[in-house]
Amino acid sequence: TEETLVLVKPDGVARGLTGAILARIEAKGYALVDIRLVEPDRETLAQHYAEHEGKPFYEPLLEFMLSGPSVAIRLAGNRVIEGFRALAGTTDPTTAAPGTIRGDFGRDWGLKVQQNLVHGSDSVESAERELAIWFA
Ligand code: GTP
Ligand code: MG
What we know:
Blueprint: E1 2-8, H1 10-14, H2 18-28, E2 31-38, H3 42-48, H4 58-65, E3 70-77, H5 80-88, H6 101-105, E4 118-120, H7 124-134
Antiparallel strand pairs: 1-3, 1-4, 2-3
Bound molecules: guanosine-5'-triphosphate and magnesium ion.
């Protein structure tokens, strides 16, 4: 069975959507292996988002991720990586499909970074790398 890293990002926690997001994950049938409230420092986030260093949204992204606590989840199940990303919807919450987490709860707030409620690892390699960062 496969594992992935899910983050409920600061906007999701601040808006009180953690429970609603967890309900969707549990309803889909994935197993919560570990879960905790995290307040990452800049170094942790720089490691997590290393692939985006130098992009125009990189600094706003780190600032956003430093703006409040997130919830880190180790999630397990067959094909959970692609399954969670399907639950999450596409990156831009304005156009993410209704029925997805981002599509139902997210929108453009006119900020420099897409505040899109959740993160999910995008490959087996990313999942292993990211789980080692958040669940060391
Ligand atoms: P994650 O699950 O958070 O990794 O989202 P993703 O895989 O759908 O997106 P990606 O890894 O490409 O980008 C990481 C995060 O950077 C996104 O979730 C957004 O918060 C932000 N982001 C990505 N692309 C853009 C962009 O073009 N503009 C802005 N403003 N923010 C972006
Ligand atoms: Mg990504």
